[in-house]
Write a structure and sequence with these properties.
It contains two helices and four strands; from the N terminus they run αββββα. With 69 residues, it is an alpha+beta fold. It is globular.
């Protein structure tokens, strides 16, 4: 995968998805979601219904990221 300019999270025991309330209890997997976290650790954007095929969802994330710069 190479070097990434940001950290990745492994959630083997599903603690994070439970804490963020995005665990699909029926399937035991995370609901596709996007969280933007600023440098202070504050969550500035949440989308818990992110659709990978929906251009508007990406645009909303990029718009939020631009606010952080």
């Amino acid at each position: 995968m190479g070097t990434l300019p940001y950290p990745l999270l492994s959630d083997w025991f599903k603690q994070t998805v439970k804490s963020y309330y995005v665990l699909n209890e029926k399937g035991g997997t995370a609901i596709r979601s996007v969280f933007v976290v600023d440098k202070t650790g504050m969550i500035t954007y949440i989308n818990t219904s992110f659709k990978a095929d929906k251009k508007e969802d990406y645009e909303a994330v990029f718009n939020e990221l631009e606010k952080l710069t």
